[in-house]
């Protein structure tokens, strides 16, 4: 049974990971995830969020190189072999770390369909304080070049779980700005939302601006706290797909960026780091502040009229 509003923890501590995987190494990156979970637990965090596709790393090469020529196919082969099957030893290890740390975690993975020689999903795994795998969310639609690597999600519209501080939700990268996804999620009344992001987009993109524009709006429309967990470019990434001087220069510039933040409906409350670094951002927040915000703007309830927009969906149900 979900806790009632008066029973929710009044104050919680959030943790946003800014780190890089051990690129295309599932075992080593899982060990890193567990270490960060235990660190956050020692620091009293209630929930920790991880970047997009953190295990074993986001296929960022799709943004910077030809997709049909080498080394792209070989990079996909490595990614596939190092992808995570759920359940499996990786999810078990992460669950054990969450139980030891007494923490909720949302972890980004590349998920492999078991017993196949193809098909990956861009996935978030939700873990409870007791180590239980509570939910699996697969990205609704892969973004741009990801569509060659990841299949569309098959886990439906649900992307949240119930916790002792209220609803914990998560979206991956661009779907954080999807209006229908936001509305669907608003019906679960999230208190904390984990937005998982990669280390870079294509050259010329302003990743930090995109993250802040999308998630400041998300925090306001959902009236929730947002953990922006963002990957960093490691030297191993540069070595793997820095195929020419221009690409290496771009990746080296991306290494200097500081992007992890924690957002409240009123704006940024933690981050970014002062230096380009790997680490965990923390923020203590009050759940009652969200209830006050819903006094005026509850888009899942009194401040919406879903019935007057229903006609937009007739064509999806065979009606003319």
UniProtKB/TrEMBL annotation:
Pfam families from the UniProt entry: CN_hydrolase
Gene3D superfamilies, alphabetized: Carbon-nitrogen hydrolase
Record-linked InterPro entries: C-N_Hydrolase, C-N_Hydrolase_sf, Nitrilases_CHs
Domain CN hydrolase: 12-287
SUPFAM superfamilies (alphabetical): Carbon-nitrogen hydrolase (SSF56317)
GO molecular function: catalytic activity
UniProt record similarity statement: Belongs to the carbon-nitrogen hydrolase superfamily. Nitrilase family.
Record's protein name: CN hydrolase domain-containing protein
Annotated organism of origin: Phialocephala subalpina
């Amino acid at each position: 049974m979900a806790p009632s509003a008066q029973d929710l923890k009044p104050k919680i501590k959030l943790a946003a990971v800014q780190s890089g995987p051990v690129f295309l190494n599932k075992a080593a990156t899982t060990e890193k995830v567990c270490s960060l979970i235990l660190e956050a637990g020692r620091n009293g965090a209630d929930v920790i969020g991880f970047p997009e596709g953190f295990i074993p790393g986001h296929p960022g090469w799709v943004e910077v190189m030809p997709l049909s020529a080498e080394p792209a196919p070989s990079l996909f082969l490595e990614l596939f072999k190092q992808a995570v099957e759920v359940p499996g030893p990786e999810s078990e290890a992460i669950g054990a770390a969450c139980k030891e740390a007494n923490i909720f975690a949302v972890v980004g993975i590349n998920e492999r369909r078991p017993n196949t020689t193809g098909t990956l999903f861009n996935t978030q795994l939700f873990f409870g304080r007791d180590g239980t795998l509570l939910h699996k969310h697969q990205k609704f639609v892969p973004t741009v070049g990801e569509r060659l690597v990841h299949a569309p999600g098959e886990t439906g519209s649900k992307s949240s779980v119930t916790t002792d501080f209220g609803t914990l939700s998560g979206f991956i990268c661009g779907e954080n700005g999807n209006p229908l996804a936001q509305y669907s999620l608003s019906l679960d009344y999230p208190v904390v939302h984990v937005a998982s992001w990669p280390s870079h987009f294509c050259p010329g993109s302003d990743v930090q601006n995109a993250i802040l524009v999308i998630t400041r709006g998300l925090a306001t429309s959902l009236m929730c706290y947002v953990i922006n967990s963002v990957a960093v470019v490691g030297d191993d990434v540069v070595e793997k797909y820095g195929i020419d001087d221009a690409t290496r220069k771009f990746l080296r510039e991306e290494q200097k960026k500081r992007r992890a933040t924690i957002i409240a409906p009123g704006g940024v409350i933690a981050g970014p780091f002062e230096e380009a670094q790997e680490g965990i951002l923390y923020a203590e927040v009050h759940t009652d502040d969200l209830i006050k915000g819903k006094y005026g703007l509850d888009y899942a309830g009194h401040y919406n009229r879903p019935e007057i927009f229903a006609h937009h969906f007739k064509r999806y149900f065979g009606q003319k």
